[in-house]
Design brief:
heterodimer, A: 359 residues, alpha/beta, GMP Synthetase, Chain A, domain 3, 2 domains, eight-stranded mixed beta sheet, four-stranded mixed beta sheet, 32% helix, B: alpha+beta, 3 domains, five-stranded antiparallel beta sheet, 12 strands, 13% strand, elongated, disordered N terminus, disordered C terminus
């Protein structure tokens, strides 16, 4: 008896059907998901590689349903193997969809422990379909196009580095608004490109976006730099004109918050990357360049702050210190409203610390 | 049963009968100064010319009237008894019987063919002595004594096995070895009740604390320098007479990962390779299991760049990863086993045919994925770096349960398996000494020696693998 039980147990090891087994060859690795439509009628697009005869090709699949999960199930009607979003790289959300409570669409992504919360998120302009099959040639693997596009943009401080996990915590933060990369298709080339930053207010996309340069400034306001942050200006001073490109080496912020006003002071250290006018060995020129940069940047910074206030989106996070240290200001009312009407002053001081190996 | 009345003729007949008229037995009567004597020995084990010389010497001593004429460096005189007679002849001594005086003269001059002490095939080192033990204890002991010229080196001998009369010797350094452990070895050796004691492996079985543990509790080595190093750490070496293998105990798990090369190489180099070897323990046991778990359960942990290649590899494999792994693992084991049995030139050919040709073809045929070939090859290489053959085999076998666990429960299975493995390691003992020291029980002073080979100039303390209460508390010696 004992022996036969033992034999049966050993034999059972040879059987399949282990409960949470998920053979890799039986799943389709979805690396790009697109969401559009409204709650109750969601359309989801999936991009994935197909493996056949030792070579890889790429395909997409469309599903619709009440929720994202149902739309994914629906898409399984049309795919060979089950869709698996555990290696998700990028989630694209159409502009119109994001204008309602964003969390409603994303809930499923947070519930499954297998899901990858490091995936990037982006808001796309217009309909989703052309983003999955762009008219321009961006390579076969469309998902890697977006992954690398966003990775590069983060490296160059073009967009905020916000992944799926940060999205969730930011969505529920009362003192911080979400900002996501904004992608559009260039009309001429047909290539999907980073167009700036999409601003959110209270879990909803405001419809307002920052353009490319504003996005960089926005990231500096947050003091979240990528590896490279570059600006170019046409430098003018007393009749002298020269193009000027600088790279931000370090940034230091100082916020002075009072009950009805926020004075912000930013100190940026630059290295000069391009300046044909040269003569940076003269203290006078350096001073002139610094003054010029301070003036221009103060102007640009203020513009971005106004834009954020206009969108009622505190994506920079002024709310954090306000909530922590200034209860009177915080309790004035809903923070996004308070923020949009608050007097925020910006002063930027530029300092040139390196000027390259010339002079 | 002997009395004066018995003639030398009947004695010779009797001896011949005892040894069943074996044709290599020499039994002849010869003249001694006060009566006849019977000389008997095995011609195959003793050289006749040498016997003549010795007998001449002893005869001269007797003629000189020495009272103790029979006692020389290699001979002794006993009262005659049949059992002493048969025993001495059997082990290659010359026995000279004097029926008149009822005495038996033993001359110990057996001559056996011995291999030269070449470096053992399975324990090559780059630097350091290239000597190895041979199939005779005396020669082996001389190799050890040569290195340890101290009076504290003790040899104890036991004769085991009623049929084989095998000499089992255990050696230790009296001043360093723990007397409890020595007593323990003695007790265990004496309690071996077997008619045939042939090999070191058999003695090992009898001495081990837990025979069913996959982990070897004795370090087998054929290198005198390794034995000496271990003796100096207070360990005991056990030799079986006709085997070149010394069993060393008590050992801990990490002893199996130390190579004489570590101590001959320079400090940094020695430490690096020791760490590399200990890390190879991880890959050798866990790598196939990890791969199976990833492909079967946790594919999400693969980076997307790699995942495509993995998926491309496994997509067309018709069966579950565990079968794929077993197929290739067993295949490698087959190659290994066949390469051992074959003479060296052919063995290499088998290696090339097996490794390259079949390895490549098996992927092209779609029987296993190319990643599995990498995993299995990596695993095999990791297990071969272990300097000890027994531990190598142990590691090779242990990974199969891990593969099964991984195929059933994924990482969870590996975690449970690891738990069981380490619980077992903590419970195993070698001659009642903890096997997993210095990790459990934790010994911070020795912990670093597991990973690093400290410079000799820094080694102040007497190295002992196992500390006992008193030593630990003393601390200042």
């Amino acid at each position: 008896m004992k022996r036969s039980v033992a034999i049966l147990l050993v034999c059972s090891l040879l059987l399949g059907g282990c409960w949470d087994e998920k053979q890799y060859k039986d799943v389709t690795v979805v690396s790009l998901v697109g969401i559009e439509g409204q709650l109750g009628d969601i359309k989801a697009q999936f991009a994935f590689p197909i493996f056949e005869d030792g070579s890889i090709s790429y395909s997409t699949s469309l599903g619709s349903g009440t929720t994202l999960r149902e739309a994914r199930n629906d898409a399984n009607h049309r795919t060979k193997e089950g869709l698996d979003i555990a290696s998700l790289q990028v989630v694209l959300i159409s502009e119109e969809t994001a204008k309602s409570d964003l969390y409603n669409y994303l809930d499923m992504l947070y519930r499954d422990p297998r899901n990858r919360l490091g995936a990037h998120m982006a808001i796309v302009q217009g309909e989703l379909a052309p983003y999955f099959k762009p008219s321009a040639d961006v390579g076969n693997d469309i998902s890697s196009h977006y992954t690398e596009l966003i990775d590069t943009a983060i490296k160059y401080t073009f967009i905020p580095d916000i992944n799926l996990q940060k999205t969730c915590s930011t969505l529920f933060a009362k003192d911080l608004s979400l900002s996501l990369p904004y992608i559009k298709i260039d009309k001429e080339s047909g290539i999907p490109e980073i167009a700036g930053t999409a601003l959110f207010s209270e879990k909803k996309f405001t419809g307002k976006t920052l353009d490319k340069k504003e996005s960089i400034i926005f990231n500096l306001l947050r003091t979240k730099q990528g590896r490279y942050t570059r600006f170019s200006y046409m430098w003018k001073s007393g009749g002298k004109v020269s193009p000027l490109t600088v790279e931000v080496n370090s940034i230091h912020k100082d916020w002075d918050i009072s009950n009805n006003k926020i004075n912000t002071f930013y100190k940026l250290k630059f290295s000069v990357e391009e300046f044909p006018h040269d003569s940076l060995d003269e203290k006078k020129t350096v001073k002139e360049v610094e003054d010029f940069l301070s003036k221009e940047l103060t102007k640009d910074f203020t513009k971005v702050i106004h834009k954020l206030q206009d969108a009622k989106s505190d994506a920079v996070g002024f709310g954090r210190p306000v909530r922590a240290f200034h209860p009177a200001l915080w309790e004035k009312g809903d923070w996004t409203d308070t923020f949009s009407e608050l007097d925020i002053n910006v002063e930027v001081k530029a300092e040139i610390t390196r000027n390259g190996i010339l002079n | 049963m002997m009395d004066d009345a018995v003639s030398t003729d009947s004695l010779i007949l009797y001896i011949k009968k005892t040894f069943h008229n074996s044709s290599d037995l020499f039994v002849e009567e010869m003249e001694w100064q006060n009566g006849p004597a019977v000389v008997c020995y095995f011609t195959t084990m003793t050289e006749g010319a040498e016997v003549n010389l010795q007998l001449e010497l002893i005869r001269k001593r007797a003629a000189d009237g020495l009272t103790d004429w029979g006692r020389t460096a290699i001979s002794s005189v006993h009262a005659f008894s049949i059992s002493v007679l048969t025993e001495s002849i059997s082990i290659g001594f010359v026995a000279v019987i004097f029926p008149e005086s009822n005495l038996l003269l033993q001359i110990m001059m057996p001559k056996f063919v011995l291999r030269s002490p070449n470096e053992p095939e399975n324990e090559h080192v780059i630097r350091g002595p290239h000597e190895g033990f041979v199939e005779g204890f005396d020669a082996n002991m001389s190799l050890i004594r040569k290195r340890l010229a101290i009076p504290n080196l003790v040899v104890q001998t036991l004769r085991l096995g009623n049929d084989t009369q095998t000499l089992v010797n255990y050696i230790y350094i009296e001043s360093i070895a723990d007397e409890d452990v020595v007593a323990n070895v003695k007790r265990r050796l004496e309690s071996i009740k077997s008619n045939k004691v042939i090999s070191a492996g058999q003695v090992e079985d009898y001495l081990e604390d837990s025979v069913w543990s996959p982990f070897p509790q004795f370090l087998n080595t054929e290198r005198p320098d390794r034995v000496v190093a271990n003796l100096l750490e207070g360990k005991i070496a056990i030799f079986t007479n006709n085997s070149p293998t010394a069993l060393i105990a008590p050992v801990n798990f990490f002893s199996f990962y130390e190579s004489p090369d570590d101590y001959n190489a320079r400090v940094l180099v020695g430490s690096f390779y020791r760490i590399l070897r200990i890390l190879s323990f991880m890959t050798a046991i866990f790598l196939p299991a990890f791969y199976i778990a990833v492909v079967g359960f946790h594919s999400e942990i693969l980076p997307i760049e790699l995942s495509k290649q993995v998926k491309l590899g496994v997509n067309e494999i018709p069966y579950r990863p565990i079968f794929e792994a077993l197929l290739l693992e067993l295949f490698i084991e087959l190659i290994r086993e066949s390469a051992i049995r074959l003479p060296t030139p052919i063995g290499q050919t088998v290696g090339i045919v097996g490794g390259l040709v079949i390895g490549n073809a098996i992927v092209d045929a779609g029987l296993v994925s190319n990643f599995m070939v990498i995993v299995v090859a990596m695993t095999a290489i990791s297990s071969f770096v272990i300097p000890s053959w027994e531990m190598n085999m142990t590691i090779r076998i242990i990974r199969f349960p891990f593969m099964l666990a991984a195929s059933m429960f994924g990482f969870f299975g590996i975690a449970i398996g690891t738990l069981v493995l380490f619980i077992h390691l903590m419970n195993v003992s070698s001659l009642k000494q903890p096997y997993f020291t210095p990790i459990v029980p934790f010994d911070p002073a020795k912990f670093k020696d597991v990973f690093f080979r400290s410079p000799y100039v820094r080694l102040k303390k007497q190295q002992k693998t196992f500390t006992h209460g008193a030593d630990k508390e003393g601390g200042d010696h």
